[in-house]
Amino acid sequence: MYEHEGEDVFVVDSHIHLWDASEENVKSDGGEQFIQCFYDYHTGFTPEGEQWSLEEYRKYGPERMARDLFGNAAVDMGIFQPTYLNDFYHTGFNTVDDNAELAEQYPERFLLNGRFDPRDGEPGLRELERQKEEYDVQGVKLYTAEWRGDSKGWRLDSEEAFEFLDKCAELGIENIHPHKGPTIRPLNRDAFDVGDVDDAATSFPELNFVVEHVGLPRLDDFCWIAAQEPNVYGGLAVAAPLAVHRPRKFGEIMGELLFWLGEDRLLFGSDYALWNPDWLVETVMNAELTEEQRDEYGVEFDLETKRKIMGENAAELYDIDIEERKRRFEDDAASREFGIGDGYAAAD
Amino acid sequence: MGADARPAVTSERARRRLRRVTDPELDESIVDLGYLDEVAVDGGRVAVSFTLPTAWCSPAFAWMMATDVRDELDALRDVRDVRVNLRDHVHADEITTGVNDRRSFAETFPDAEDGVSAVRAKLDDKARLARQHEAVGALLEAGLSREQIVSLTPADLDGVGRPAADVAGAPDRSPDGDRESPDDDLACLALRDGAVHVAVEAGPLVRYLEKARETGFLADVDDPLFGTPDGEALTAERFDDVRARTRLASVNMSGQGGVCDALNEARRSKLGRKER
């Protein structure tokens, strides 16, 4: 378990992937450009000594992933967010079935999220049922701007999407994670506009909408919607690594998020392997608001707030009993393999 | 001095003019953002190549920047021909050809659902709010009360941003209308009753006026100077909540600026590309 100035912090990394962008799996130029763009994000926001080679980055495999998450006791649990991109990669980029490969080795440590695309129609609904049945998914990751054939994306507030959200509610898939962040490839960027979250969140109060990447570059629209919809949350993937080289901007963004949403509706995510929690958790734990920022926003980014953001809020959404998990982690597969069981025993 | 005696277009002059072109998502000059690869001048011909922070940068944004580069240079005296070259973008060829052939966005991207004007208007609105934040900040800093601030009109700012004798130290406006950043200037603001004169940092006010006029928010000298996100006049009652919204608009733009900046650095070093 992560230790910060003598205090334990239970970390749930709410946004991780096990992807394959190896040259063999790249199907189109889009797939190559996609991983290249990810790599720019990686190098742009990773401290120099921690950067990977592009080869490692294309395909790192389950063993390395487990080591990066648990080897240094940075992360206690992870939530997989699948990204299919079948037009780009022969066997998909990061599918629920790929993710399951690792999750099954450490069943206590991972939660598998599924995905849907309303353009799949009836077979898509059946697939969602399969994901629930096979992996007990409690959430779905959604890419509203994914191109398919002539379609340039879809909206969360469309009739077709509502049919899928109905199905989620019926199956008990409560956590909806729309990617509303940096562009993949929308010709009109508004496929990532956050406006559609508003209506969906109002229409489905029993579901939680975790807007990934806090809408960046639409932080303003996102915060305004989230301030009015209590079931809208912010996922910090992409925002978090700003703390590395741009701590002042990170402080401003955290200030806005804490001002508009409060400390109970923000979830840490590394976006692994975009960034490695092995160093990112420490960076965020050490980040502070300046005195000027604390005055301006009237908020604190202290240990209590960080504990919520780093794990407790995700635990709440995913029904994770942290104390019970700690007891189980004293001697589970990951603790034995990486010698990290003592951290949990000591925390009792 | 007659037109014939004027120096030919120089790359420096072209570059200075290009300071007016902003990345619409960040509301910052593409020159300051380091997007330009080369500004080559040959007589009256100017060729500009630029690279954006990612190959995935929204084609609509890329289009806006490419057309703005073309149009700003077109407006320079003595420029006869402008060539724009967007490099290493998923739609580099379409955009470069479309802009140089003066085709429209819709002609260039027949499968796009909308044109760029709605996106541009939306981003311009955000830029106006972000700039309002800085301008109101400067006025608060100068000691104006919220009541005084909400009662201002463009007429009250008549002298602000004019590089004439009434603003000491302002550089001369060149025949192209381009001038150095006025950010360090102080402006003397005479409040309506004329009884109070205050010195205010001019840069934020000039920047705000420019965007508020460009977006059509300020059409008349007697319009209220500042607005709400919905485009209504700012009132003292709504001052604080609007201030929080404009701060958010400003943090959004500068925060995204931080993201693009890091990507730009990473990408340029990978491509081995330096500005020439």
From TrEMBL, chain A:
GO MF term set: hydrolase activity
Domain Amidohydrolase-related: 12-320
Pfam families: Amidohydro_2 (PF04909)
Signal peptide coordinates: none
Keywords: Hydrolase
Domain of life: Archaea
Keyword Ribonucleoprotein (UniProt): no
InterPro entries membership: Amidohydro-rel, Metal_Hydrolase
Protein name: Amidohydrolase
From TrEMBL, chain B:
Domain called MIP18 family-like: residue spans: 14-85
Coiled coil: none
Alphabetical list of SUPFAM superfamilies matching this protein: Fe-S cluster assembly (FSCA) domain-like (SSF117916)
Pfam family, one: FeS_assembly_P
Disordered: region residues: 160-184
Descriptive protein name: DUF59 domain-containing protein
Organism: Halorarum salinum
